């Protein structure tokens, strides 16, 4: 019963964020998703509904063997910023996906900022 309430509150936060945060070609939406084992980051243009760049701990590459903890979040944030800059994305709108802006979410965002993305 308690987890159902937590999930419902998280869904309400997610909807509240998505009402105001939309991505364009100039400033795509940087959507993050944290599971117990993986971290996923996508850069989405909501106008045409297309993912411009993506990085996760599941993908092939440098982030493959990382876990969903603070150090993994920092490295995924850096790799996501690098992937976005390679595609020509310099400024983004951050979509934290209903998560609170503490811990892993903050570590990922700070690492992406340090790597050159503007929020």
Describe the structure.
Strands 3-2-1-4 form a 4-stranded mixed β-sheet. Helix 2 (70-86) runs parallel beside helix 3. It has helices spanning 2-20, 70-86, 104-114, and strands spanning 29-34, 39-45, 50-56, 93-95. The protein is of the alpha+beta class and 119 residues long. It starts with a helix and ends in a 5-residue tail after the last helix. The mean pLDDT is 91. The chain has a single domain (2-114), classed as 2-Layer Sandwich (Nucleotidyltransferase, domain 5).
Shape: globular
Strand content: 15-25%
Number of domains: 1
Q: Remind me, CATH topology?
A: Nucleotidyltransferase, domain 5
Q: Distance between termini? A: 37 Å
Structural class: alpha+beta
As a whole number of angstroms, the C-alpha radius of gyration is: 14 Å
| Sheet with most strands | 4 strands, mixed
- The number of helices is 3
Secondary structure: helix percent:
25-40%
Report strand order across the widest sheet: 3-2-1-4
**What is the CATH class?**
Alpha Beta
Low-confidence stretches: none
What is the level-2 CATH architecture name?
Answer: 2-Layer Sandwich
Element string (H = helix, E = strand): HEEEHEH
Mean pLDDT: 91
- Give the beta-strand count: 4
């Amino acid at each position: 019963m308690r987890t159902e309430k937590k999930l419902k509150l998280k869904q309400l936060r997610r909807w509240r964020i998505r009402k105001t945060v939309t991505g364009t070609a100039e400033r795509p939406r940087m959507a993050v998703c944290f599971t117990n084992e993986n971290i996923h980051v996508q850069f989405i243009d909501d106008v045409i509904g297309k993912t411009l760049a993506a990085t996760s701990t599941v993908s092939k590459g440098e982030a493959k063997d990382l876990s969903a903890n603070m150090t993994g979040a920092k490295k995924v944030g850096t790799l996501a910023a690098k992937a976005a800059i390679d595609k020509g994305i310099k400024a983004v709108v951050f979509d934290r996906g209903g998560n609170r802006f503490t811990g892993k979410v903050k570590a990922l965002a700070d690492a992406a900022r340090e790597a050159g993305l503007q929020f």
